[in-house]
Every structure is written in structure tokens, then in C-alpha cells.
């Protein structure tokens, strides 16, 4: 009986630890600016769609605010920029830059909408840097996490606070791997 319970516990524990390994792998990829790791850990089509949805919501808020204040100008062409901006953000370079500079990135996005300009500078070239897995690396990850849990059998959610900005990431089990399928980040 004891062997049977140990045999059953090992797969369950492995399954429960599995998404935490994906979280740490993504963290290492972001911290070291490793485009290859970030590319592997994210399922890009739903990420791009989610970012575009968030940007559309942001534009809607700006338009509603402008209708009340009338002192800022933003054109409806800004709505068409959301797809272009989502294309710029939904890249390994864009996600890495967003992770390292969330406040600056949000300001750049706001300025792009306000001026209705092309989002060319949103994904600057990021140089990979070696990450030494010593010292406070992993403890600093745990300090940034607000909560982390399974939402169901195949989804895992984490909320972070990176440089004063809240982020929510949802992983989905896809085959034998966990992939990021949703990234929410604030623009205000």
C-alpha cells in the first residue's frame, strides 16, 4: 500500500511543480534578455491578441476621457495603431524590453497614441546578458510575485509587481509543456 501511495504521489507532485519550472525558465529568459528562451516559453498568437485587446481598451478610455475634457487631441486613427503596437510588443525583444522598462514602455505607448505616430521605437534591440544563478536572483523573483496558483487543471496564473507595475501572466498546458497565453500589463 505504501509503495502504491508513493507511486501515485510522485506524478501528482511533478504535475504541481511543473508550471513553477516554466515560471522560473521565463524569469531566467527575461532577466538574461535571452530571446530564444522567451520565444520558446510564449505562445505568441494569443499573446498578440490579448495585447491588442488591452490596447483597444486603453484607446477607448483615452477617447472617453477626451470627450469629457476636450483639451487633448487624439484621432480615431489611433485605434488602427493598436495592431501595429501589438505586433511590436508581441516579440521576444518587446516582452524583454517591457519587463526591464515597464514605466518607460507604457510612456512610449501613450505617446505613440497621443501623437498618432508609427510605433518604431517600441522594441529596441536588447543585448543578451549572462544571468548568474547565485545571490538574490530567485528570492527577488518570489518578492515580485503577488500570487500564483492553478486556475484549473490546465491553466496556471501569476500576478507580479515589476518596478511598481502590476502584471498578470497565465500559462496553459500545451502537450508536455506550459506556455504563456495571456499577459496583462498596465498602461496607466
How is this structure best summarized?
The chain is an alpha+beta fold and 188 residues long.
Describe this structure in words.
The protein is built from 7 helices and 4 strands; from the N terminus they run H-H-H-H-H-H-H-E-E-E-E. It has 188 residues and is α+β, with helices and mostly antiparallel strands. It has a 4-stranded antiparallel sheet. Strand 1 and strand 2 form a beta hairpin.
Q: Given the structure, what is the number of helices?
A: 7
Quickly give the structural class: alpha+beta
What value does the average pLDDT take? Answer: 80
Major β-sheet, in short?
4 strands, antiparallel
The span between the termini is 57 Å
Shape summary: elongated
Hey, roughly how much beta strand do the residues contain?
A: 15-25%
Q: Give the ordered list of helices and strands.
A: HHHHHHHEEEE
What oligomeric state best describes the polypeptide chains here?
A: single chain
Low-confidence stretches: none
What percent of the residues sit in helical stretches (DSSP H or I)? 55-70%
Kindly provide the radius of gyration, computed on alpha-carbon positions and rounded to a whole number of angstroms: 19 Å
The count of β-strands is: 4
Walk across the major sheet and give the strand order.
1-2-3-4
